[in-house]
Amino acid sequence: MRLKSIELVGFKSFARKTSLDFGVTITAIVGPNGSGKSNIAEAFRFVLGEQSMKSMRGRRGEDMIWNGSGGVPRSGRASVKLIFDNYDRAFNLDFDEVSIERVVHRDGISEYLLNSSVVRLRDIVELLSQANIGASGHHIISQGEADRILSASSRERREMLEDALGLTAYLYKREDAERKLEKTAENMREVEMLRRELAPHLRFLHGQVKKIEEVSRLQTEISQKYLEYLGRESIYLRVAQEQLEEKRAAPQGERKVLEVRITQLRTEIGNKSKNDNVASKLVVLEEESRTMTQKREQVTRRLGRIEGEEALRERMVKEVGVIIPHAQVEEFVRHVEQELKESLTLDVSLLHARITALLTRTKEFLGRLMHTTSEQHIEQDHARKAEIEQELHDLQGKEKDITAAIVKLRTGMESERETSREIERELFSGMARRSELESILVQLSAQEQILAKERETFRLEFAEAGALIGSDAAGFDSYPLTNTHGEKLTVTEIFTEDRALQQERRRKLERLKIRLEEIGMGNTKEILQEYKETSTREEFLAREIKDLEVSARKLYQLVEELTATLQTRFVAGIETINIEFNIFFKLMFGGGSATLSIVHEEKSRRSIALESVSEKNETTDEVEEGIDIAITLPHKRIKGLHMLSGGERALTSIALIFAMSQVNPPPFLILDETDAALDEANSRRYGDMIENLAQKSQLILITHNRETMSRAGVLYGITMNSDGISKLLSVHFEEALVVAK
Description:
Layout: E1 2-9, E2 18-21, E3 26-30, H1 38-47, E4 77-85, E5 97-105, E6 110-114, E7 117-119, H2 121-129, E8 140-142, H3 148-151, H4 154-164, H5 168-272, H6 277-319, H7 326-343, H8 348-413, H9 421-469, H10 491-495, H11 499-519, H12 524-589, E9 593-606, H13 611-614, E10 619-632, H14 646-663, E11 668-672, H15 680-693, E12 698-702, H16 706-710, E13 714-720, E14 726-732, H17 733-740
Parallel strand pairs: 3-12, 3-13, 8-11, 11-12
Antiparallel strand pairs: 1-2, 1-4, 4-5, 5-6, 6-7, 9-10, 13-14
Helix pairs in contact: 5-9, 5-11, 5-12, 6-8, 6-9, 7-8, 12-14, 12-15
């Protein structure tokens, strides 16, 4: 790579466009003091990204712009452009020629352009570091800064040497990795904070989901138990009804036949003994007995209905609430309507009083109903039941008396006519059997009443099952009923099961329904959706933490590797620079020695290593490395750099700068009057070293020294007229020799 030219427009004293071509290895820039030749060196600093206005003899960016004169107005901007030959691709760009330009405006804003495209300063710095053109400015040495490397601190001196050794790219990479490491640590803290903020809400939602799961489990269990209960109960009621019908069919048929036969026998007896009072009485008593039996059956059925109504009302009161008789409601409504009609003719004050009284009466009416209605109905049911039970008891007593009278008459008639005995015996036998059959039918009727109440209970449970489990309740008849071994139950096994077990199933259902009501849930769909979204967010953050931890470990490892590489290359570079430094020093001073040594200093700092990576996050004492310089002069004893004279410091600085340039040569070196303090003998040595340096780097020399000028291939002369504008003259090698002499 080779520096081809520099172009200045409106920069400091170069009001007009000025170009300097660097077609030779050594170019010298000469001119009287105040002509602006040092502005060339500052233009290089400017375009290469120098941010310190002080180092360019200014206070702000505006000071870099031509400020005008009597004949030429001031410029609105200043620009400096460097053009490089990039055939060897020293810059990692696919261009044969690379231009770097910086523009500053009056408002202080700077722009950087790479091949006319706007880029960042960082892009420029990283590109230049590829060609060993670093930020420390070791390749641009001004007259007043030649001593900077000696007066700098050991740490600053190390930075200059790192720059000269081409380690800037590694330093940028390490700094970038450290910034990313710090950013990763910050991101991890932010993610952890988000997870901590999310945790309480997630725990709450988790609890809600547990409740929803419990509700779902209860609903499933209730559904299963309801289907089992309804399935068993349906089968039991069906089989019980079928068996009841079967039991009732035979007695009813037999009784019907007996009724016909008894009627026939009575007719025969009547025909044979129409005047027989005993027989007449017996017939009357038998008829009374039959009538009494029918009444007893009716009363028994009424008693069954009352008991069923009582059980149903108690259940409805328990599940629904208070039942208000229709008559009481109608009476109260009529009263309210009458009161309202009368109120239409009243004035406002009386109307208010009437409405207040009506509201009071309404509250009293509802209060009485709430406290008394239900109890009144229950008490009425109990009273009616007691009356019917007493009536049944009286009928049973009368029936018993009639039966006793019949037995007595029958006993008396045994001694009567033998001709009628067989008929009477058959009649009495038939009547006795009829009584037995009627007793059986009464018992079956009682069973029918019980079965009717169980059917009503089944109906209510089925309705409640529909409210709880929906249309699934209708599938009870297809629900598989099995025993504890998973074997399908037969209808006989279901029917013959102890009824207490079925009642226990019903009680369990009631307990489950109470538990379900106690839990109670709102919109479970929204809760589940929110829980899913929150869980997904938490899982994402957890994965983010893991990814960040992996990135942090990789970055930490990269920092360690770059640090090790930097240290290895730095130590090796110092050894090489030491050799060249000692050679140049002896050449400059005719003897003596000069060495660089690495020194260690402790510096307290905050560890950048992440706790998750290095398990450290506390303030530590870091050991920093710096560079110390030790020299010995021939025929002179010194104890430190501070004892050197100005000329000795200049020669030592030049020797070190040239040594640095030999190890990792930059593409170009700018020396701004660094030879000003040299005498004639040292100037020749300086010239020899310049020619030696020119074998590895282009040299741009700003000088007054004739010996230095004589080594240049091109001389650029800078002049300034009364208008304050710097102008450029060029002289080639042959002419340069004449000028130098």
